[in-house]
Amino acid sequence: MTTHDAAVRPHLETPARRTTPQANRRDLISVAWFVAFSLGLAVGAVAVGASPALIPFVLAVGPALIAVGLAWREGDGALGRLWHSLSIRPRDRRWYLVLVIPVGWALATVATTMLLGPRSDGPFDTLFPAILIIPLVVLVPAFTEELAWRGYALPRLLASMSPLTASLLLAVPWVAMHLVLFLPGQWYADLALWPMVVSIVSYSILLTWIYVGTGGSVLMTGLFHAALNGVAPIMAGIDPDTSWAVRNLLAAGIAIAVVALGGLRRPGTRR
Known about the structure:
Blueprint: H1 3-8, H2 21-47, H3 55-74, H4 78-84, H5 101-116, H6 130-158, H7 163-179, H8 194-213, H9 218-230, H10 240-260
């Protein structure tokens, strides 16, 4: 196992957790439990009648608590490695440039929507002060989601499969978690469902790309995730139905480009 390969799979660092069929099987079982508990939490939140304003935070924070509990139960330093992933910074500082992608994506959404959709008199009229407040609001949920899905689940899948396969596999339960937001009375009840599926699959690919490329940095995936959510005010003031489709198709285009350019090849000797 190369140095870079070890960095991408921090939960396999110790000799007791070397890649073996038995260890891989344990990792897959751990991910299965994580997914089952997370989906159960989503269903439970709706079943008990949680407020629509509260459910998104439950879906973001809940899986992180589940991941922490499972890592603690695993022992062998798993919990310490999970926390450590939040402090890993990319050795190649060019990776910080990925944080510009969400801004370009949002501006491209505005431009495309204005070309395709109804004319808007002031697409940026609601930009301030929302652009200053929303990034702070989305910061904690973004990092808790990333601690769970990229910090805990992803490296355990990377031990036995390619980054592309792992990202697509994780996208399935991640999509399922977000389905509750489209139920009657929930935040996205009036929006089309298919753009959400496209966006979650695309985000999963992009976040896996960043995680692998930065050596397992949940710090970077958390910042990127927060940026994806934080640029929402830029896209306010334009036709919501058109922009909802456009923004997620553009995200899919970025994800496809990353895959086509080899961004999700196996690191080191695992290519």
